[in-house]
Write a structure and sequence with these properties.
mainly beta; four-stranded antiparallel beta sheet; 1 helix; about 45% strand; globular; disordered N terminus
Length: about 350
């Protein structure tokens, strides 16, 4: 090898190490500054007295907050609550899950085997799924919507505690089930625009390929949620019952495997309780993740493994032992709910 080639190798190696070190310094500095300046302000939102459970929180256009409860659908704007509820038919607005489509339509999964298409107070109708559930009342544990890129068709997909995956085709008004990899509870469903499906269940996380066969992600024994901000993130438990946070590295990420992506488990060893349960999570724009856990609210940097915990023991005006639901608004406000009737607005900027 000639001297010129050796010099080129040395220079390229130096440049790579320099830029890698620079990236680490930048990430560390940003996170250190962020965590030092993050002193959330917790404000409890007082709900109507007969509400016992908060089941779902969704944000519309970074301005409206929608909350599904056992006693109605709540709309929150500027901290003012509007409740949609039918006293003559209480089960109609017993809402367990919410998804909002690109037209602003709210699709609501109920306690009684039905989906509600909700445009506004005067424009809504209920879609019964009793023919699918054999007249048994099944809670809609998860609901999502997608408009396929190729066909332009929009579907609503719902999951149940018995593992049913229900499809409602909006254009044709057809309702049917597709083959499911589980007979147990489905916590979350996510469908990509190309039709690929992900489901999080008490039996683990599964995905369907183009041949509609289900395959299991073997790194998790239970999976509670999956979300995407360009990258796909998931939470659950591993075979040792430890909490796991996973990132799918797809094309353009750090690892590629035939364009299918590779799930990588991110270390959570620094958390005080490695066996805590993650119920939900929210993705911030600064690469940090907010985790709703049974031991409180956790701000976590997945690239450094650094965390900060907020709970009723260390945060004034925060009276919630465990956080069950979480949604982020404008990257400045968190909305968090308990498994009971406590709802907090958390200002993080």
């Amino acid at each position: 090898m000639n001297l010129k080639s050796r010099n080129n190798i040395y220079i390229n190696t130096f440049n790579y190490k320099f830029f890698l070190l620079l990236k680490i310094i930048i990430i560390t500095t940003v996170f250190k500054s962020f965590t030092q300046n993050t002193n959330p302000v917790f404000k409890e939102i007082i709900l109507p007295k007969n509400i016992r459970t908060i089941n779902s929180i969704e944000i519309e256009n970074d301005s409206l907050v929608w909350v599904g409860t056992n006693k109605g659908l709540l709309k929150i704007k500027n901290d003012k609550i509007t409740r949609f509820y039918d006293k003559s038919n209480p089960l109609k607005y017993a809402i367990n899950s919410i998804t909002i489509d690109n037209d602003g339509v709210k699709w609501l999964g109920t306690y009684n085997s039905s989906i509600i298409k909700f445009v506004n107070k005067y424009n809504n109708f209920e879609i019964s799924l009793s023919s699918i559930t054999n007249d048994e009342l099944e809670i809609i544990t998860s609901i999502t919507n997608v408009r396929y890129t190729e066909s332009g068709n929009q579907i609503i997909c719902a999951g149940t505690p018995s593992g049913k995956i229900i499809i409602y085709e909006i254009t044709s008004n057809n309702i049917y089930t597709i083959k499911s990899p589980t007979r147990n509870i489905i916590y979350k469903i996510l469908i990509e625009e190309n039709g690929k499906k992900w489901i999080c269940t008490s039996d683990g996380m599964f995905f369907s390929n183009k041949k509609k066969k289900w395959k299991k992600v073997h790194k998790v024994s239970k999976s509670y949620g999956i979300k995407s901000n360009g990258q796909f993130w998931a939470i659950g438990r591993d075979k040792k019952h430890k909490a796991v946070l996973m990132l799918l590295f797809k094309k353009g990420g750090f690892a590629i495997k035939k364009d299918k992506g590779v799930w990588k488990e991110l270390s959570l060893d620094r958390l005080p309780d490695a066996h805590t349960r993650f119920y939900d999570f929210a993705l911030a724009k600064d690469e940090n993740i907010w985790l709703a856990t049974e031991t409180g609210l956790v701000l976590y940097n997945p690239f450094k493994g650094t965390y900060k915990i907020f709970n009723q023991d260390n945060s004034p005006n925060f009276k919630m032992k465990s956080v069950k639901h979480i949604a982020i608004q404008n990257d400045k406000i968190l909305w968090i709910g308990s498994n009971g009737n406590k709802l907090y607005k958390v200002i993080v900027e």
